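Structure tokens please, single chain.
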Amino acid sequence: QVRVVESGGGLVQPGGSLRLSCAISGIIFAINDMHWFRQAAGKQRELVASITSSGSTAYVESVKGRFTISRDNAKATVHLQMNSLKPDDTAVYYCKTLRSWGQGTQVTVSS
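Here you go.
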């Protein structure tokens, strides 16, 4: 059974940083692509960042240059480093691999 558990969300002021983590078990982590999605209140869930098994990354335009996705195959963990946060980044952030989702972690950017 695949288990996906996010952590690291919270309240941060505009311009601040947060690092989200996602621990995954139940799959061969190293051979699978990993993704971070987010869903703001009243909006559709959107793909924020992806990292392939070989380490290639991709980002939605609105976070390029501010967010960095990375993976630690030894610890079966994927991270999302978020810098220069804006109020528009406020959302529940979800980690996904294959067809499995985590429960989400709330990120709130507000002064």
